[in-house]
Amino acid sequence: xxxxxxxHSTASDGTDTPAELVRNAAAAGLDVVALTDxxxxxxxxxxxxxxxxxxxxxxxxxxxxxxxxxxxHMLAYLFxxxxxxxxxxRELVRDDRVxxxxxxxxxxxxxxxxxxxxxxxxxxxxxxxxxxxxxxxLVELGVVPTVNDAFTGDWLADGGRAHMEKxxxxxxxxxxxxxxxxxxxxxxxxxxxxxxxxxxxxxxxxLAAAGLDGIEVDHMDHDAATRTRxxxxxxxxxxxxxxxxxxxxxxxxxxxxxxxxxxxxxGEITRRAFGAFPVPGAGGA
Length: 285
Hints:
The chain is an alpha/beta fold. 36% of the residues lie in helices and 15% in strands. Helix 5 crosses helix 6. It is globular.
């Protein structure tokens, strides 16, 4: 089985629609794909309606979190999307995205970059607006050559000249909410230092004690030495280890199935979840 547990669609900051994503996942030879858009489940219905035969969809979301001034992301799998407490927190985070984006645009304007809200809104379309959409605008304007080049201290990285903070969930609260909604919580790319500051391993240990299920180890932002270190840490803490592409369509260079999750780990995730269940495709539209 080939299992990719971290992908994005146009419901947040990917470039594939949810329907295109599942069709592309099947074409890439995946058996299981997770749709984990940022702080939203809005793409699930479209993905399910288009799910090809032979591909199983894991519903989820990537939750924006922050602790000690460090931004981090929590992958939530197979939770009940209508559970009131987690739904309310997702809406809080989502509702802060527009004023945050407008604030970053204002900072860019002060730095002499002629980006506009209209440009960013066009790029975001119906998705939850975020930094990748602003980064794409910077590419369009010729300010940076690629989206990744916008995520530096000069521009949009945490602490960068044009960065602004948004409402983000305390990760311990995120774990509690995800588990309360019947889901499974996995810390996304925990050592992706190129994105900015990372949380110390002591915090990961505390999260494990609080119910964290796993950490994403095999990821494009982790080199071989980092993956080995994280796998050892997970073993010490009794955490599951996942692998995934963090696919965003054409917005990033990663491809579907670039990294994958062990079938035994996937089986354990499905055993732990009770808020929702993986859906096998029957041949969608």
